[in-house]
Amino acid sequence: MTEADLQVLFESLAESSSARGMAVGAGLAQLQSGHAVELPSAYRHFMRIVGPGSWGGFLHFHAMEHMSTHEELLAPFMDEDLEQMLEPTADVLVFANSDNGDMCGWHLHDLVRMPPNDCPVIRIAPRSFDGAVIAASTAEFFRLLLVEGANLFGVGALPLVFQPRPLG
């Protein structure tokens, strides 16, 4: 699937949901200053066209300036035991979370050492510290959800309904 194909899918999703997307410059700059990484173009296009919000009332996408690593999200609860358990997924930069507690993101070390568009999407299951690759790339992640209706979270295909989150 090409970036142009993906853009058409995003525009269709945005149109059907009245999503307005968002300017990604400031959020991307803030994220890059904190984590020094480039994000996959598929995610940047998704944010620019659709914006933050909830997919199927289940999968919630964060604005770039609100993205955090798994470790940063758990920092208030951190102790020595948690730190050891968290090690495999501590550096996962989370871009979405589900109502069931799943988290989706990319390993920061992948975003640093690989072209961002080639970085696999990691799913951290609820109440788990193990990450599993659910898509070979972000473009593949969106293709699986939008085109194939893949059951990536154990709840069946997500409806093609997007609820934008108010900006500002």
Automatic annotation (TrEMBL):
This is SMI1/KNR4 family protein. Residues 29-142 form the Knr4/Smi1-like domain. It comes from Comamonas resistens. InterPro entries: Knr4/Smi1-like_dom, Knr4/Smi1-like_sf.
